[in-house]
Amino acid sequence: MDSSIAVNPLGISLVKRLRKSEYRNRLKALGLVAPLLAFIFVTFLFPIVQLLFTSVDNTVVPRTIPVTVGLLSQWDPHSQRLPDAEVYKAFATELASGTNLEISKMAAHLNYFESGARSLVVRTARAVDKSVYQESAEAVRDRLIDIDGKWGEPQPWALIRNYSGEHTAGFYLTSLDLRYAADGSIEAQTPEASLYRNVFGRTFMISALVTALCLLLGYPVAYLLASIPARIGNLLMILVLLPFWTAILVRTTAWVVLLQSEGVINDALLALGIFDEPHQLIFNRFGVIVAMTHILLPYAILSLYSVMKGVSPVYVRAARSLGAGPVKSFFAVYLPQTMPGVSAAGMLVFILALGYYITPAMVGGGEDQMVSYFVAEHVNTTLNWGLASALGMLLLVSVVVLYGIYTRLVGGNGLKLG
User: Do 84 and 29 reside in the same domain of the chain?
Assistant: First the structure.
């Protein structure tokens, strides 16, 4: 037999054993990381998926009045005519047969999209009884209109029809100051009802300003820590890390004390003659920016310091030896090498600032609250979980998009100068 095509049984056996060993090693590695993957899924991925489903959930309406929803699907809201009398009969019948809890949930759900819908539905449900079973459709229609004249208008029926599916984009439309018109098209909210576009703009503006201040204040501090001897630098680093040992609530409360009209800062400015009378430094945009900058500044310093510590001073010395002055050496040689730290610190601080809640809520005014404040309000106060989930998802998508832009522009080497 030709030796070039001869099969070596020992070689085949070794290959099989090697493959089995690699397979077992992969299983072991998977077993080691499985608890971490499960933890990430339970605490991160699963809540996001649940948030996504909650933001489009609309099952309460078709589940409570399925017959009415089916009949309304055949009604054309563009005609500006009222639905057929059979729709009135089906609606009244389902109100009379439904439980108070089911009707209340449906009414509250519709009220999220149209103010006054809850009182209309609940008032109608209390007025109808099981006698509507024996009445004609025309009689039931007249009865509902007598209970509330709004049932003689197309608007409440259009509202039910627009939110008759098991899923809806209504919460996202509300988050963008949009809504469904009576004919099912999308239109802008009235100026009085418009809110969330300004909130998102305010959130991004405050976060950007806080990020810029953290970079401006943190860069020289990080440069100092990276340049001085390690013995002194380690002591100063303790001062940077010290705020991490104090709760955010405590640090925010401290700023409330410092910035109030009779606080330490106002007293100091009055004593120096800078102010003639106490100024309002809290419950406004100034207080929010100052407090958030103080809380997020250590994140920027640590991100910058980690990069600056790896920058060799040899390059700056070489530039100086070639005739460059200290300013030119810094901007032409040192600063470009630290741009990965600048971009990483900026992205970290900006993302953290986007989701801030406690600090703006405590030191800001009504016009200084960010998206997280309204998410918490809808969860704890209005119980509008759908709108809270939609706002949270939009904020999450914004962060993902910004991070995608950041990775595309920065890549693995940081922002480039020149």
Answer: no
